[in-house]
Design goal:
The chain is α+β, with helices and mostly antiparallel strands. The protein has a single domain, classed as YbaK/aminoacyl-tRNA synthetase-associated domain (YbaK protein), CATH 3.90.960.10. The chain has five helices and ten strands; from the N terminus they run H-E-H-E-E-E-H-E-H-E-E-E-H-E-E. A five-stranded mixed β-sheet has the order 5-2-3-6-9. A hairpin with a 5-residue loop joins strand 7 (135-138) and strand 8 (144-148). It starts with 7 loop residues before the first helix and ends with a strand. 39% of the residues are buried.
């Protein structure tokens, strides 16, 4: 598990190495960290929210706490209490806090990316994400985003595409 003080440049380097190994064209975009949160990013940089894909960490309420990562479009809502809970096989779940997310991934909310998650962390992708011609994902820090094809998500080890992981808006 990465330490909570992982340097953004270090994570971005890992992101680049992972993306280069997946064989899908990608572009790292530098952004103003003040606009890292999805709605602010989309408005500032003219990105349609239907192309913004958020990586969300979810925690089970049992001890030791199980975690998973989920990727959903910004125009949808992650179905935490039904779809994610069932996938995790636990009775109760919640969104991981900012502190838990940072401790688990070494990344801050607004920059969490699927390309630098801890090994073995389950990754679930809503099927709607895969229907887009291109998506924007976190780049590993609040200073960058990655533009790529959703095909890249199918190539990540352990990623599972799930119908109904999210619900409309």
């Amino acid at each position: 598990m990465p330490s909570s003080d992982t340097d953004g440049a270090e994570v971005e380097g890992q992101v680049a190495r992972v993306l280069d190994g997946l064989g899908v064209p990608w572009e790292l975009q530098a952004i103003d960290p003040a606009f890292a949160d999805t709605a602010a990013f989309c408005e500032r940089y003219g990105v349609p929210p239907g192309h913004a894909a958020n990586t969300i960490i979810v925690a089970g309420k049992t001890e030791p706490r199980p975690y998973c990562a989920c990727v959903v479009l910004a125009t949808t809502r992650l179905d935490v209490n039904h779809a994610v809970r069932k996938l995790m096989g636990v009775r109760k779940v919640s969104f991981a806090s900012a502190d838990e997310t940072r401790a688990l991934t070494g990344m801050m909310i607004g920059g969490v990316t699927v390309f630098a998650l801890p090994e073995g962390l389950p990754l679930y992708v809503d099927a709607r994400v895969m229907e887009r011609p291109w998506i924007i994902l976190g780049g590993g820090s609040r200073s960058s985003k990655v533009k790529t094809s959703p095909e890249v998500l199918r190539r990540l080890p352990g990623a599972t595409v799930v119908d109904g992981l999210a619900t409309e808006g």
